[in-house]
User: What shape does this take?
Amino acid sequence: MENYGHTTVLLKEAIDQLKVQPDGIYVDATLGGGGHTDLLVKKILNGKGKVFSFDQDINAIEFNSNRFVDAIANKKLVLIHSNFANLTEKLEEQGIYKIDGIVFDLGVSSPQFDNADRGFSYRLNSKLDMRMDQNQKLSAYEVINEYSETELANIIYQYGDEKFSRQIAKNIVNDRPINTTFELVEEIKKSLPNKVLNSKGHPAKKTFQAIRIEVNSELDVLKTALKKASDLLNDKGRISVITFQSLEDRIVKKFFVDLSAKNNYPIGLPIEDKYIISDFTNITKKPIVPSKQEIFGNPRSKSSKLRVIERN
Assistant: This one.
């Protein structure tokens, strides 16, 4: 079991935005170290409310089973070992068909990055892995060693916004098999011009992000989960989403804008204003970002953005 020495980003802001009621039903879609779950449980302790927390990483489930022994025993908290794409199905198994709020924290937790065995970090040497759910078959090893050069180049460009994706993919394919994270870092480094290698930031960051997204189907899973979450919401129920990179934030922003759009009737129809309505209100036209103090204490929070939507 991993030690979750993890600092939750925008913790108070994300939960405050849910307007938690003691008798409500709430979901933490990304349990991780349990920061958001802890606040949710505290807010419903004196009522009839309940919290359901999801994580596909068994290490997170095991860690929090010990952390929240009392809340679980008192039936205030249920931990669910599953990807949040299975939100509706897993909640129905618990007899839950509507919820009052849900929080998504889309960052990879610090223990996953900091544990070399998980293969997420370009700063630690280990076998290529990057699976959030270690029961799944596809890992970074298969992506790097079995995908075609074209497939690799497309993934690295689309998911990592890496301009030198073609050269990186070409070198990877020419030198396969690639077994470890450091071997992959070397392939990336030799594919980049000196001006990039000497610039600020790690040269492998974009490619590692892209491979991780592909391994875990992160963008497709996010779209599925957002739709399910919005369908589950009671009136005045809210969704809080914390993103850490532009691809995810773009998906969340577009989903919230589309969801909160008013009925699009053709111009000129004799329809009263009261019928031109939306089922949702986009609470955060501009995202909430961490304070300078939070960024100073936790540099990983710098790129985070919080967006919130409410069912009317």
Q: What stands out?
A: The chain has 15 helices and seven strands. The mean pLDDT is 91. The chain has two domains: 11-105+218-311, 118-216. Residues 118-216 form a domain with the DNA polymerase; domain 1 fold (CATH 1.10.150.170).
